[in-house]
Structures are given as structure tokens and as C-alpha cells.
Amino acid sequence: MFVQIVGGIVHHLFFRKYLRRTVISYIHIWLGRILVTAGIINGGLGLMMSYKRPTVGQIAAYSVLAGIVWVIFIVVGFWKAPQKSVENTETAKAVPTWEREDTDVDSPKMSEKI
Amino acid sequence: MYDLSPLYTQSTANCIPSASDMMRARALLISAFCLFVVSGTFHHLISPLQANVLPIASASSIERRGESRKFDHDLLILHAVTACLAWALFFPVGSILLRLIDSKNAIWIHVTIQVFATLIYTLAVGTGIHLAKKYRVVSFKTMLDFNINRDLLLTHLRSWMYTTRSSVLSFSH
Predict the structure, then answer these.
(1) Are B92 and A82 inside 8 Å of each other by CB?
(2) pTM confidence score
(3) CA A4 to CA B170: how far, in whole Å?
């Protein structure tokens, strides 16, 4: 988790500097996916080891809700087109909407805007 | 016949670890294995079977102990609710919103939600450490489930030492 905090900040600084994703970005993304998955499983384990046995309804509620959230998390993470780079204007999807009016990509103001 | 002399003239002295290296590695391996076995042998000393569910840090009177137990039950609920909310709601939702919101400020929404989730998970970790110090609620059955794999590994090692071949137990490990 503390790696995630530092990694997120470093990713943002590097993205501002290089205008594209770096290794730090992918470590941040994949560590986040692993941590969320492990955290959801850990919640189920805690429910299992609780000294007062949880009811079937409580277990089902946690499993269903956490499962739905996890599926949405994974589907959105892979399906939604991520902002990989600002330099790439050929594919409009890679450029966020607040940057689409700009045609001159190589202007030095680009790094100031982000 | 073929001339095999180049094979024997090449020096392999630099390729092979020296005898002292082998001794050092063997000592490390043996000490690690001894620690592993000894920790299993004296496992009954730290086994949760002996540790009852009574609080270790007792209060001065029975009434205060009862109050403390009631308070700790509330802490347990707090621990469960905050940890579940953090990992099953706030951490994933913070990441989902980063992809769904198409705005320049999406990252700051992400940062805010993740920091909030980190804070409430820190609360859960604190209450969890407090409760784990005070009570030993992990049942013997649960610990047994985790120890089965160690027993399988030891059995596999014992049979492997004699046969130097993997058996069914090895694969189950």
C-alpha cells in the first residue's frame, strides 16, 4: 500500500515529464489489481475465522457484493481505453477530451497543461 | 579416433564453486532446515490449542473486564466493517472512477478516495493488531489446515531423501 502511494506520485511526475506511461505506471496498475484482489479474499478469510460464526446470509451478501465490485473493477480496467500517452494524436482515443482541441502536440505548453 | 585433448586442457576451475563455498551453502541449508524442523517440533508451545479465548491482558476487576470485552466486540465489528469497506468498496471504486470519469480532475478524485480508503484501512489494521494481541481466536482447526502443507513437505522430503524421486505426496504438496 505504501509502495502504491509512492508509486502513484512517481508515476504522475514521470507522466508529466515524459507524457507517456513508464515502468512505474505498470507496477502501480498491476500492484493495485493484485492488492484489491488479495484484500477482497482477505475479507472473506476474516469472515471465516470470526469467533462468532457469521450467518449464511452475511457470507452470501459479502461474497456477492465483493464479487460484483471485483468483476466491474477488472472489466473496466481492461475494457476501458486507458490514457497511455499524450503524444499519440493519430488515435483520438488515446488523447483525453480536454486535450482534443489541440492539434499542435509538440508545443512546449503541453507539459504545462497536465 | 577423435582427439579429445582440448576437452581436458580447458580449465574449469573458475566455473566450479570452491569447497569453502559449498561448505558455506551447505551450512546455510542445514541450519535453515533445522530451524524449520525445530519450529515444528516445539509448535505445541505456541499452539492455539493451549491458548484459550480468555483475554491475556486482564483488567483489575470482573466488571471492568466485562466492559472491556464488550468494547472489544465493538472494536471487532469496527475492524470488520472498515476493512471490508476499504477493500471491497473504496479501493476498487476509486480505481473504477479514474477510468470512467473523463476529466482532468479525475486523478484528484482517485487520490482523494484512495487516501480515504487507506485511512479507514489503517483504522482496521490498528484495531486488528489490538484484538490479536488481546485474544487468540484462531481455532486449532484453522491452524491445522495451514499446517497440513508443512507436514506434506516433510513427508515428501523424507521419502525424497531415500528415493530422490518425486512421489504423489510431492505433487500434493
Answers:
(1) no
(2) 0.56
(3) 37
